[in-house]
Structure formats: C-alpha cells, structure tokens
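FW: tagging you since you asked about this chain on Friday. Here's the raw sequence from the shared folder, copied in full. Didn't touch anything.
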Amino acid sequence: MKKITILLMGLGVMTLGFTGCKKGEDDPFLSLKNRYARLKGDWKLVNVEGTGSYSDEDGTSSSTYSYSDGKLIITNSDGENDTLMYKMNLKFEKDDKMTFTQRNDYEGGYFEEYSEVGGYAFLGKNKNMELKNKEVLAMIGQSYTFTDLDGTESGTISSSDYTIWFTLVRLTNKEMKFKWKYNLDYASNFPDNPTMNEAFKSMDELIFTLEKE
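HL: got it, structure written out here
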C-alpha cells in the first residue's frame, strides 16, 4: 500500500510539468512541451483533404481534394479532374523565423516553386470567433523567391499585404494538422481590373497534414 501511495504522489508531481490544456481539436491532452516547442523543426506535407466550390456565369461546380504519393488530386463535379505533383515544407526556428516552400510540377515539364521567409506568432484567444489561445498561427512573410522555367524572381513582402493565417487542429512532437480556408471573389478582390471574370467566385476548405522530418 505504501508503494502505491508513493507512486501516485510521484505521478502527481510529474503532471505539474505537463501542458494539459488542449488548444487544437485533436491535440494531445498531456504534453511535456508547449505549442511553441512542439512547432520547432522541419515539416513535410504528407496529406491534403477537403472540398471546394466554384461559380461563374455558367453555373456552379464542386471539387474534392486528396493526396497520394506526392500527387494532389482534384476531383471535380464537372468531370474535369486535375492531378499535379505538389510539395510543401515548413521550417520553424527558435528565433521565430519561418520558411515556407511549395512546389507544383505539371505535365510537360512545367513547374512553379515558391519560397517565403519571415516570422510567425500564435494569436491570442478570441471569444467572438470562438478561438482558443494559441489555436491560430500567423505566418508573416518578409521576402520571397519564385522560380519557374522562365527564371527566378525575388523581392520583399509587406506584412500588411500578405499574412498566412491557419487554425491548428492537431500539433504533437511529430504531426501537425491545420485548417485553411480560401475565398476568392473577383468582383470584390479585383474591382478595377476589367480583364477579370467578375462572376467568378471560389471557396476552398482544406486540411493539411505534415510530419516532422
């Protein structure tokens, strides 16, 4: 009986070192590291899933996203499906430096590779949006490099112009899942560009899964 009591007392002391408040929907209940510590490192995309919808003057269509063997597969309701090689890598360093890289490879040898360097920060609690403290991660780009068959372009980014926001659903020492929503309304986003199709609207809701390398 004495041994059991000592063991329970030891477990009680140990739990003081754990982070026991879940931030994401699928976060581990107990963790020896906080979210900042778990985020540090190099991450590689392993899965994409979600849906999208598109509308223009011809009507509305929908799509489903999946990912297998490095291929992003977009299954469209109109029967025109798309497949491309897609890679995403994220790197979070101790000095709050972030590097984001993605690459698309298409048929015929054409490719696009985009890399961005900047900072990152967890956002605080927002009752109106029903968000917990450190549930949303903001990645603020400062410089970028874009490469395709025509060459390489690089430049600086204004943080007020471009910030990636996403909701972390799960963050462990080895796995990260985040939700990403993208809405595009040509009439609202490009009001002064007559070449844009003003009737075009799209909305994608995706979940990305990455594993630590």
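FW: The two ends are 45 Å apart (CA to CA).
HL: agreed, and The helical segments are 2-14, 35-39, 186-189.
FW: great, closing this out.
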